[in-house]
Amino acid sequence: MSTIAAVIGRLMLALIFVVSGIQKIIDPAPTAQMLVSKSLPATLAMPTGIFELVAGLLLALGIMTRLASFLLAGFTLLTIFFFHNQFGDPMQATQALKNTAIAGGLLVVFAYGQMRWSYDHMRANRKGELAAREADERAREAELRAARAEGAATAAGVPLTDADHHGRTKRRWF
């Protein structure tokens, strides 16, 4: 149940940025005006929209989840610094608290971002499966080499030694 809640939460956080990014890409003028009002270059409007859209989609799909959530958390905290820093104004204080909560949620995604139902999780599982398969193959090859060596020693009449259940070495002939 917690996995489902985490995935839904990740999708809800991603939705904020995807929608905001699309709005900025479709109509960058309001964002450009807001940037100019804070002495920032208006040319950042389109890159900001693209960043929000791409990072939001990465977050939604679970691709590079930790990186996307960390960058979006930093971006969200920067918006408090640049745009919602008038804490005496109740509306700006509310916006700052909302952004703080969003950044907190993104940091939780950063901490637990590679959960089930994400591309990152599937990639990590696949990597683990491949490593286990390689380890099994190496063990099988080592057993075959040992069996071949034992067979060669037997054919040559070389005595082999084994340890009994008390750890004492005993000779055996094969």
Task: Describe the protein in words.
The protein has two domains: about 1-115, no CATH class; about 120-155. Helix 1 crosses helix 5 and helix 3 runs antiparallel to helix 4 (about 65-85). The mean pLDDT is about 85. A two-stranded antiparallel ribbon has the order 1-2. Helix content is about 75%, strand content about 5%. A hairpin with a 5-residue loop joins strand 1 and strand 2 (about 170). It is mainly α and about 170 residues long. The two termini are about 60 Å apart. The chain has six helices and two strands; from the N terminus they run H-H-H-H-H-H-E-E.
Present the secondary structure layout.
Layout: H1 2-26, H2 29-37, H3 45-61, H4 65-83, H5 90-112, H6 119-156, E1 160-163, E2 169-172
Antiparallel strand pairs: 1-2
Helix pairs in contact: 1-3, 1-5, 3-4, 4-5
Give the averaged pLDDT, no decimals: 86
* Ends distance: 59 Å
Compute the number of helices: 6
Roughly what percent helix?
A: over 70%
- One letter per element, helices H and strands E, the order comes to HHHHHHEE
What is the strand content? under 5%
Global geometry: elongated
Structural class: mainly alpha
Please list the strands of the largest sheet in the order they lie side by side: 1-2
- According to DSSP, the number of beta strands is 2
Q: Biggest sheet, open or closed, and with what strands and sense?
A: 2 strands, antiparallel
Indicate the low-confidence ranges by residue numbers: none
Query: What is Rg?
Result: 30 Å
Total number of domains: 2
